[in-house]
Amino acid sequence: MLEIIQSGGWLMVPIVLCSVLAAAIGFERLWTLQRTRVAPRELLAEVWGVLNNGEYDAQKLRELRNANGLGQVFAAGITNARRGREIMKEAMEEAAGQVAHDLERYLTALGIVAAIAPLLGLLGTVVGMIDVFSALMLEGAGNANVLAGGISTALITTAAGLSVAIPALIFHRFLLRRVDELVVTIEQESAKLVDIMHGDQEDPRL
To answer: Residue ranges per domain, the chain?
Structure first.
């Protein structure tokens, strides 16, 4: 592997860095964007149970806000519940927007990696082909080994760039889809809390 990287020339350095960055972002987001970490299914019932017992003080609201994304939205709604249904909904929508922004963290960088990695590979190939033609001018076309070796080296960067870009693009699309699903879940759970607290829906524990 080290020999391949060395034979690809100096442009292999940014390609390797892109691969490390893409892997780090991909696995970090896969861990972070789990349903149980962002919007646990049982949270609505737990929150309603605590509300019925009248146990939500400033400390518990702080704990709820820091627990996960859905808890952050619920805390905003509970804090503004007494100001009316519309104010409560607006507060939760604003909190949900912030949560969605946090869920999309680093995904722009991952998309950039997916876009520029093949371009870096292509640039490496172009630079390599320039070197090949320079060698042709100096040595002529009689040395086939020099030509084959030069072309092979030039194409390594393209292969490396595509090898980085393809999984990065897959991760990017997959994670964007997961963010969309989580945002929809948060919106649905938030609407249920609004309806429950304003008497339009039954106790979610029933």
So the answer is: 7-197
